[in-house]
């Protein structure tokens, strides 16, 4: 259908609903605002591909915490133990492992590239016998609660496109991200906090130049109320929540009521969903004036819990603090929490900054899993840890200059781990070749991972769609298959 004709038809229907006043019109407005006009519950937006808050099947997970490690953690130094890589340290990379594959411009051709053994030793951990590096002693102790996916691969060789592909299903910015899709499909379980919250952190002293772009948590072409709300790392988590001097809560409430009436009139005239989103956002901001200060006050947390997350847990803006906040957010009904930590881009700092990255993220990540487990929340909370791709088994730099050892971007094999939310605990799924170069057994593409995450949340990834510019879009684009082998 011609988009102009489709627009006129939709406008006619909306105008009809709007002119029916407080009857069908207000019911439609309430639906677009995400509120059931009868029950008052928050629901997902109506749409051809939306679930309206009702999963396609019984979900294993009700919420997601994504511990995203910007910059690409080195799988061959952390999780993917390869004795042959150790044995061939300093030897040239055999041609048969390359097979015409492309790498970043920093690597260029792989001719003469020397293999680099893991910087720290590996050990088998727990009853599962999972291989985890000495870099990560706390995660190692949680190995029997984790599901390691060691055969991930992706299409991108650079950071921003790789992160965008992992989080939105497309390398080019502009598509809705995972949290936006989940909120669009399933709605929210809280009236007092956003359904999708994002927090960011960077290790102190890192030379990594990774930037947190807003499209990493954007809603793309979905209505803007589905985008992630970023909590700041210092001061008030959300700006301007406090009332200005001379404005008390009753006055603010009256102002918002008047604004809502004006916006409702505008909506009835034009039918723009963004007008309804504006009303909903004003209301959310009003409720957050009470909910966010209570959320951010961690003084009631016992020392035994704080100790799980490590010594920097009380320092706002650290990864440890954000992990604790993630647990507090999902306890209060937040659907998706995206905790992003930058600094993993070790092109020339494997023997220096990698230690810092692991020290800053190891204990908080493991502590979050342990905390969720002891509270009975891990069973229906899916925790994901991983980055946009891996690092090369060969060295970037000179083998003679140990202080500047590094590894380049590597999209052909990398590792992530998951916990809770319906995945098998104590499992290492998939394999790479004997140098950690290519995924060779049970390969898992980024779209396969996305399809599996949605499945665990009760969503058929092929049926959660949104029509935009004449086409039905979905998180997995036209790809993706569920990784049955990791499902509990």
Keyword list:
Alkaline Phosphatase, subunit A; 13 helices; alpha/beta; nine-stranded mixed beta sheet; disordered N terminus; single chain; 32% helix; 17 strands; two-stranded antiparallel sheet; 488 residues; 15% strand
What's this model, at a glance?
The protein is α/β, with parallel strands linked by helices and 488 residues long. The chain contains 13 helices and 17 strands. It has helices spanning 3-19, 24-32, 75-78, 83-87, 137-141, 159-168, 178-186, 249-270, 273-296, 303-309, 319-331, 353-374, 446-456; strands at 63-70, 122-125, 130-133, 146-153, 196-202, 229-231, 336-342, 381-386, 390-391, 409-410, 414-419, 427-429, 431-432, 439-441, 444-445, 466-468, 471-473.
Task: Explain the overall architecture.
With 488 residues, the chain is of the alpha/beta class. It has one domain (46-242, 290-486): Alkaline Phosphatase, subunit A (3-Layer(aba) Sandwich), CATH 3.40.720. Helices cover 32% and strands 15% of the residues. It has helices at residues 3-19, 24-32, 75-78, 83-87, 137-141, 159-168, 178-186, 249-270, 273-296, 303-309, 319-331, 353-374, 446-456; strands spanning 63-70, 122-125, 130-133, 146-153, 196-202, 229-231, 336-342, 381-386, 390-391, 409-410, 414-419, 427-429, 431-432, 439-441, 444-445, 466-468, 471-473. The strands form 5 sheets. Strands 1, 4, 5, 6, 7, 8, 11, 12 and 15 form a 9-stranded mixed β-sheet that branches. A two-stranded antiparallel ribbon has the order 2-3. A two-stranded antiparallel sheet has the order 9-10. It is globular, with a radius of gyration of 24 Å.
């Amino acid at each position: 259908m011609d988009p102009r004709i489709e627009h006129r038809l939709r406008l006619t229907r909306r105008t009809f609903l709007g002119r029916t006043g407080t009857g069908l019109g207000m019911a439609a407005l309430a639906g677009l605002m995400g509120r059931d006009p009868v029950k008052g519950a928050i629901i997902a937006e109506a749409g051809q591909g939306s679930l309206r808050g009702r999963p396609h099947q019984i979900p294993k997970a009700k919420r997601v915490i994504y511990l995203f490690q910007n910059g690409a953690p080195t799988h061959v130094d952390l999780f993917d133990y390869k004795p042959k890589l150790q044995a061939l340290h300093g030897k040239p990379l055999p041609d048969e492992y390359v097979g015409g594959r492309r790498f970043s411009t920093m690597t260029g051709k792989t001719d003469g590239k020397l293999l680099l053994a893991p910087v720290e030793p590996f050990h088998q951990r727990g009853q599962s016998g999972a291989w985890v590096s000495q870099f990560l002693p706390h995660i190692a102790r949680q190995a029997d609660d984790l599901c390691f996916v060691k055969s991930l691969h992706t299409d991108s060789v650079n950071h921003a496109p790789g992160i965008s592909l992992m989080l939105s299903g497309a390398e080019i910015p502009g598509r809705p991200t995972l949290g936006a899709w989940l909120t669009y499909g399933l709605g929210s379980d809280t009236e007092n906090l956003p359904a999708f919250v994002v927090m960011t952190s960077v290790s102190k002293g890192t030379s990594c130049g990774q930037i947190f772009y807003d499209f990493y948590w954007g809603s793309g072409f979905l209505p803007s109320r589905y985008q992630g709300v970023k909590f700041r790392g210092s001061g008030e988590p959300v700006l301007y929540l406090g009332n200005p001097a001379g404005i008390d809560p009753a006055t603010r409430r009256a102002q918002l009521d008047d604004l809502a009436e004006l916006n409702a009139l505008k909506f009835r005239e034009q039918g723009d969903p963004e007008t309804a989103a504006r009303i909903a956002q004003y209301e959310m901001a009003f409720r957050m004036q009470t909910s966010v200060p209570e959320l951010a006050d961690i003084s009631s947390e016992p020392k035994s819990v704080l100790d799980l997350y490590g010594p920097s847990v009380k320092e706002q803006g650290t990864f440890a603090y954000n992990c604790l906040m993630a647990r507090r957010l999902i306890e209060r009904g937040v659907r998706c929490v995206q905790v992003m930590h930058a600094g993993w881009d070790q092109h020339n700092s494997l023997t220096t900054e990698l230690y810092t990255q692991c020290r800053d993220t190891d204990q908080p990540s493991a502590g979050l899993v342990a905390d969720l487990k002891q509270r009975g929340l891990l069973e229906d909370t899916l925790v994901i840890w991983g980055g946009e791709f891996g690092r090369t088994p060969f060295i970037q730099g000179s083998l003679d200059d140990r202080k500047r050892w590094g590894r380049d971007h590597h999209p052909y094999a990398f590792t992530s781990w998951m916990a809770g939310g319906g995945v098998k605990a104590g499992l290492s799924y998939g394999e790479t070749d004997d140098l950690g170069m290519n995924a060779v057994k049970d390969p898992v593409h980024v779209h396969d991972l996305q399809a599996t995450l949605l499945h665990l949340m009760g969503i058929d990834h092929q049926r959660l769609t949104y029509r935009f510019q004449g086409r039905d879009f979905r998180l997995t684009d036209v790809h993706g298959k569920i990784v049955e082998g990791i499902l509990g």
